[in-house]
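Worked example (supplementary).
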Amino acid sequence: MSSVVLFTIVSLSVLGVLSAIILFFVAQKFKVFEDPRIDQVEENLPAANCGGCGFAGCRNFAEALVKSESFDGLYCPVGGNETMEKVAQILGREAVAQDPKVAVLRCNGACDFRPKTNQYDGASSCAIESALYGGDTGCQYGCLGLGDCVDVCNFDALHMDPVTGLPVVNDTNCTACGACVDACPKDLFELRKRAKKDRKIYVACRNEDKGGIARKNCEVACTGCTKCFKVCPYEAITMNNNLAFIDADKCKLCRKCVPECPTNAIIEIGFPPPKIKEPADVEATDGKTGPAETIMKESKESINNKEE
Amino acid sequence: MLKTFAKGGIHPPENKLSAHVTILDLPVPKTVSIPLSQHLGVPAVPVVDKGDAVKAGQLIAKSEGFVSSNIHSPVSGKVVKIDKVPDTSGYKKNAIVIEVEGDEWIETVDRNGDLINTFDYSREEILKKILEAGIVGMGGATFPSHVKLTIPRGKKANYLIINGVECEPYLTADHALMMQKGEEILVGTMILKKVLDVDKALIGIERNKPDAIEHLTRLSEKYPGIEVYPLQEKYPQGGEKQLIKALINREVPSGGLPIDVGTVVHNVGTAFAVYEAVQKNKPLIERVLTVTGKSISKPSNFRVKIGTPISDVIEAAGGLPEDTGKIISGGPMMGKAINDLSVPVTKGSSGILILPEPEAKRKKIDPCIRCSRCINVCPMGLEPYLLMSLSQKNLFERLENEKVMDCIECGSCSYTCPSNRPLLDYIRLGKVNVGKIIRSRK
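After joint prediction of all chains, the assembly is encoded as:
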């Protein structure tokens, strides 16, 4: 009996040792060399696998970073400059800092402003609705409100506002990965430069119809009247296809265009109301010039902020 | 047992309300708006300007590239604007708007209704006439006809198939056309035969139109090489691939064209348009369409000028009923709901269907119960339930492997689904995305 046990142990051990030797040589022969820096770089990436960099995931991006000569066109929007700095240290290169960005929705056509002209009862997806027709309001450019953007957001930065029927961006959570930009069939999301205190001024409209038609279909549509274009001191506003666009890189957030807009299509977010900010000044001067001066002061302030 | 295609298919209630109604000419509207993109392919480019006076039959937009089509003015009058107007696509697209004044025609058009059944043109002459007349597939797909008639090098057609199936419920435009313009269709078929250099033309007609079968069979005795085949009623027999399978038992390979199996398919409406273009020099400026629905007072077949607003057509059929829930351009299976009554009739409008509110509403979507009915009815042998979930999950490579691009969008799956799942909606979305990927590879 004991001889059987002994035989088993010996034969298995011999087999094991033999296999180990074969495997060792096989492993030597078929060894895949992988740059150890790829692992290091990957450890420093956010591991969100969101695809915001344009690669299939963080690992893929890490490989691209290590292989590439420079960081041209390679940027992790989620990790931002901090992550890119760390990666640059590992790879011994210079990181190019980019301005942090945030997604904004260029449509303000809430139910109250943009009445429905027909009922859509198809599958609940913006992509499907927009493939079928212009949408259930008179504006074929505006938000369809079925939340394709909310579905693709990995960072909980978007939710639908039940009152307006529009998605709302949570600036704190938004990493500017660009998933919503790709998902929106109407191309309503834009990644804009993040300003101090998340202040924003932008034209919340993409309606390219002529003024009258646009206005008829939506109370807050940009009619292409060019008033903002004329008043902008920084040439940040461009007019194209009956539509104004504010270039976030040129805009100094002076707010001059905001009161000019006859349809309130230009939205300002994150600013304190002018009267509350410096009430003494407004009262001191006569009523008409007061607010304008306040705006001017603030514009100077914001310019100063930029220069800092 | 009559011929039909092998795989799948359904037979929804036919509801051919206007089957025996004579085609009436709709009065010329006050203004027409003629979209520049009424065909598959590149939109035409306008050759008239705002303020120009145009005559009926005059070329107003020229085809741009090979897969494109000429557009002619259906009326005489003045071009008031070239601007974006809503069309059947549900979007505003560029169109030429003409205000009607008088009734002047260009001189070359023969407006006499007499039949001319002899022709002595060469193949090239006929092709040129078809190209210039801006003829597109009248069955609804609006594929430019001259492209189909230009056989690629190394291929040979041995059958011409004329599609008189009209398997869509409600629609009767082709039926009425076959009854009233039967001989013209046959002459058009002879012309098409000559272009393709084939000996045999087969006309497929479903047996729910016995009068049309009888009528065309009798007429075809005079025209050598044309045979009429009655077919079993089954949707979507009017699909090119299904009709080829039914008539000559050949299967178009995946991703292939009918010419790959030696045949070309044209609709009866196209055959008639070819007759008018070649024998009468009349460009494609009007078409026959059905206005129908259980709730409207006079379901009818009209010959309508391209560009006529749909509201005019509905008015002529007794007006829009109170309880209308949906207005569909096309048939109930493949048609598309429209959201604006000013949408113009285009070359591809085969019908206008008005559905009352309760019938128009989609039913509640339930989970898939794995009954496999969608697989059984798919005429292309696909698995719609799988394609839908792959499309929802954005698994485009698998979608491509599952042959999503073979889907003909007949809607049999959505029609038959007991859980009312929006199968075709998602499959169509998948097709768009996979199509983009395929194009980007090139």
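Two points are worth noting when inspecting this output. Chain A is about 40% helix and 10% strand. Chain A has two domains: 37-91, 101-269.
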